From TrEMBL:
The keyword Disulfide bond does not apply. It holds the Pfam family Big_14. Residues 137-249 form the Bacterial Ig-like domain. This is Bacterial Ig-like domain-containing protein. Transmembrane segments: none annotated. Keywords: Signal.
């Protein structure tokens, strides 16, 4: 009887030990790997970076953009037509007259209806309205005197639909109070006419025309002028388009 009692007691103790070990194992497991591991991502703060815009100015309600090139005007008067008096951040667009996004204190002069020159760091820099010329034409004046000049026509890129050409007609305008006014022609007893030849403008090249206006306008007094010419995109008889181009100069 004692043997059975001893055996029963021994088996009971072993059972209790096994149960205790199992509970300990569960406890370790619950503290270790039974809980899911939650991966946390570090939140990255993003900041919007304001990018610098192209240098530009607002003058008389028009926006002019920096072309990155110096003015082609040779010889000019020292009187400014205006001055940039206020500025905004380089990431913004000017919205007030005589305002830029790169600084103030710069004098400027009008060139034509599409461009102005700003005097910056001892140089005249050309600013232009953002326009699209599908013919790639640019007129400039050189060798200017009171009686004439050499008109240089540059053609680069673009996509005219026909042959670019012009003729002998031209006209002169003078700037008065920031407005372009036709220069008055000399009186004549005879009706004036122009020759009818067509001058071809070569693609991706330049051509020069010598102009002497003494018979039409005489010798010009000092001032700001521009010469205008009509250029044609000619596809065939009766099938063409025309655009007007100008070159500015000073006497």
């Amino acid at each position: 009887m004692k043997q059975y009692l001893l055996l029963f007691t021994t088996m009971t103790c072993m059972s209790l030990l096994l149960v205790g070990c199992s509970q300990s194992a569960l406890a370790l497991g619950s503290e270790g790997h039974s809980k899911p591991v939650i991966a946390t991502k570090e939140k990255k703060e993003t900041e919007e970076v304001a990018l610098d815009r192209r240098p530009m100015v607002m003058v008389n309600g028009e926006l002019y953009l920096d072309t990155g090139r110096e003015s082609d005007i040779e010889g000019r008067c020292g009187v400014m037509d205006g001055e940039i008096t206020s500025t905004v951040d380089t990431s913004k667009i000017p919205i007030q007259d005589n305002q830029s996004n790169f600084g103030d204190g710069y004098g400027y002069q009008y060139v034509d209806e599409n461009s102005i020159d700003l005097y910056m760091n001892g140089k005249w820099i050309r600013f232009e309205k953002e326009t699209t010329d599908t013919w790639g034409i640019q007129l400039t004046a050189s060798k200017v005197t009171s009686s004439g000049l050499t008109l240089v026509c540059n053609q680069s890129g673009a996509q005219p639909t026909g042959n670019l050409q012009t003729g002998s007609p031209y006209w002169l305008e003078v700037q008065i109070n920031n407005e372009w006014v036709p220069v008055e022609m000399l009186p004549s007893e005879y009706e004036r006419g122009w020759t009818q030849e067509a001058w071809i403008i070569p693609m991706n090249n330049s051509i020069e025309w010598v102009v002497n206006w003494t018979e039409l306008y005489g010798n010009l007094p000092a001032g700001k002028y521009r010469i205008g010419k009509e250029i044609m995109d000619f596809r065939g008889t009766g099938d063409y388009d025309t655009n007007t181009y100008y070159a500015n100069f000073e006497v």
